[in-house]
Specification:
- The chain is α+β, with helices and mostly antiparallel strands and 207 residues long.
- It has helices at residues 2-19, 49-53, 64-76, 83-94, 111-123, 131-134, 191-196; strands at residues 56-57, 62-63, 104-105, 108-109, 139-141, 151-154, 164-170, 173-178, 182-187, 197-202.
- It has seven helices and ten strands.
Length: 207
């Protein structure tokens, strides 16, 4: 009887972990602080020019390929780039990356892994690892005051609040790692995200 009860508890824990499929709500062995710059981890998209040429980000009025090329030329020539340019570059860098629960690199990344990596590489700022923890960082921002680079949060999980996070890029759009589609651009005006929206935090005012 005791063994059966223990087995039921174990299965209950497994089910809860599976349900929490955006980003883990606490630190686990799934997390890794390793950099994702290793060549073997890089997704094929990085060497596929056509992948970026087909990405037009209307909220920023840019083509991903053109921006990426211009940004990399600046770096090559030691030309200083702005915080906004840095953030855009690393957002583009991750677009198209598949979703992976607890993932932290181009082979697969979850929502808070995406925001953590982008902020670290673009702004040299270390965010906490989970969406729940990130919700306590910075200052609160009203929805009508959202600006580029703000973190936006959503109530999508049963056992973690908030359960999802993305980066606002303007024009009611945000970039995030969706559990279904990987790193994509979505609209806050869609019924799902409008209903699930719970707030935003600002760490940097990026003009």
């Amino acid at each position: 009887m005791t063994n059966k009860k223990s087995l039921n508890i174990i299965w209950g824990i497994i089910v809860l972990v599976i349900l929490n499929n955006c980003s883990p709500s606490s630190y686990t062995e799934r997390y890794s602080d390793k950099e994702d710059a290793s060549e073997k981890q890089k997704h094929d998209k990085l060497s596929n020019e056509n992948f970026y040429k087909n990405i037009n980000i209307s909220a920023l009025n840019i083509n991903a390929y053109d921006f990426k090329k211009e940004y990399e030329n600046k770096k090559l020539n030691n030309i200083t780039t702005s915080l906004k340019e840095n953030l855009i570059y690393f957002i583009i860098y991750y677009i198209g990356t598949p979703y992976k629960y607890g993932g932290n690199n181009l082979n697969g990344i979850d929502c808070s892994g995406f925001t953590t990596n982008v902020y670290k590489n673009a702004l040299n700022y270390k965010l906490p690892r989970t969406a729940r923890e990130q919700f306590s960082v910075g200052e609160n921002v009203e929805k009508y005051e959202l600006k580029f680079g703000d973190l936006v949060f959503f109530d999508t999980q049963i056992n973690s609040f908030p359960g999802h996070v993305g980066i606002y890029i303007g024009d009611n759009s945000f970039v995030h790692s969706s559990s279904k589609n990987g790193v994509i651009i979505s609209s806050l005006e869609t019924n799902y995200y409008n209903t699930k929206y719970v707030g935003a935090r600002r760490i940097f005012l990026i003009e």
